[in-house]
Amino acid sequence: MIKIKLDNAVDFVEESELESALQQAEKAFKQVVDGTGPGNDWLGWRRILAEPNDAEIDQIQQHATKIREDADIFIVCGIGGSFTGAKAIIEALNMPFNEQGPEILFAGHHMSGRYLEQLLKYIQAPKENGDPKSVYLNVISKSGSTLETALAFRTIRKWMHEAYGDEAKSRIVATTGQTGGVLNKIIAEEGYKKYIIPEDIGGRYSVLTPVGLLPVAVAGIDVQTLYYGAVAEFELQEKNPETVLKYSALRYTLHKKGVALDVIGSFEPELMGFAAWTQQLLGESEGKKGKGLFPAIAGYSTDLHSIGQMVQQGQRNMMETLFVVESPLSKMKVPQVENDTDQLNYLDGKLFHDINKSAREGTVQAHREGGVPVVEIILEKLNAQQLGHLIYFYELMTAVYVYMLEVNPFNQPGVENYKQAMYRLLGKR
Ligand code: PA5
């Protein structure tokens, strides 16, 4: 279960404003549950938790185990909702500098030729013992036609067919919509293994489909626990959505009172990928009809030495949301040394976790006093189950809050504008 601390934010709004926003949040929640809001054919992210497909989760886990046994490198090729979720979970749960299991690389999330050139060089270079690297590729695109992903896929796939011959077919896995798109044509021609993204789930709500589950399982994370963490949160919120309603109502009220930005961050660097996932989820869902809180992200304490200044004393148009992990992620303590030249002996033997906690508590106090409402979203521990809770919490909160804005949370019509201009310049017919 996700805990949420609102004490450092609620004083910025009147009780009566919050009360009336809560009533609106209840209505918006009902629209989500009853499927009566705009975009109601895109509620599959709830359906899959109400009726979990255990056979598919098992199949993904087994496939991932096989890939893990053989792969040195697993490339996730996708953009937007087709990669942020997997990246968020892998960064959160895998240890830094972890050398167990295949290295997970990302591609298709921008158009840098330099990056692709170096990626090809890297995967082609033999291992330390002189053996070639064993490379697998997972292309992920619901539409099957997104340019960034398609270009990277063409480039890496060509290399894989040259390097592995016919065996490339068993090393390339495609995750896409059931029908349509050029990717489905390629799959049919080449016979790649295919996972289906359900029609009723949009990209940024798809992390608990094969889009996120396969890469996460290949990274060695228990996807069943992750998934059932989300199921548990779904069941809890269906009965008692209090936390989601309160947070949605507060965001909505602050926005109405002129707050324009939500600075989303954490003092745990492991959770910055997750912050990026929420940035995409919120940004593409709420930024329409001239409305929405701009979801900025900040990694603390690093960014206290940069945009922290802006948060403390810049324009008073922002709120802040921090992801907190209660239990220490490590038992690392400040080491004792013989003298005190660095004047750090007052911290001797202290857990880094506790020092980081004091930095967070001090920051929350300072930002609040500086005029920034701060919300803390609290996980007991950083594990697959808790992340599952957090994923559903955010999906639901996004839908409820965006319905309060009277906006469709499930489309992204504005994304087409840059594409049309770009295709014109590129001469696409
Ligand atoms: O949330 C969304 O729908 C988008 O961010 C998409 O995930 C993104 O544009 C990638 O699209 P596709 O999976 O079709 O390549």
UniProtKB/TrEMBL annotation:
It is an enzyme of class 5 (isomerase). Pathway: Carbohydrate degradation; glycolysis; D-glyceraldehyde 3-phosphate and glycerone phosphate from D-glucose: step 2/4; Carbohydrate biosynthesis; gluconeogenesis. It is found in: Cytoplasm. GO terms for molecular function: carbohydrate derivative binding; glucose-6-phosphate isomerase activity; monosaccharide binding. InterPro entries: G6P_Isomerase, Phosphoglucose_isomerase_CS, SIS_dom_sf, SIS_PGI_1, SIS_PGI_2. GO terms for biological process: gluconeogenesis; glucose 6-phosphate metabolic process; glycolytic process. Its main location: cytoplasm. The active site is at E284, K419. It catalyses: alpha-D-glucose 6-phosphate = beta-D-fructose 6-phosphate. Keywords: Cytoplasm, Gluconeogenesis, Glycolysis, Isomerase. Its EC number is 5.3.1.9. Pfam families: PGI (PF00342). GO terms for cellular component: cytosol. Catalyzes the reversible isomerization of glucose-6-phosphate to fructose-6-phosphate. NCBIfam families: PRK14097.1 (NF010697). Belongs to the GPI family. HAMAP family: G6P_isomerase. This is Glucose-6-phosphate isomerase. The gene is pgi.
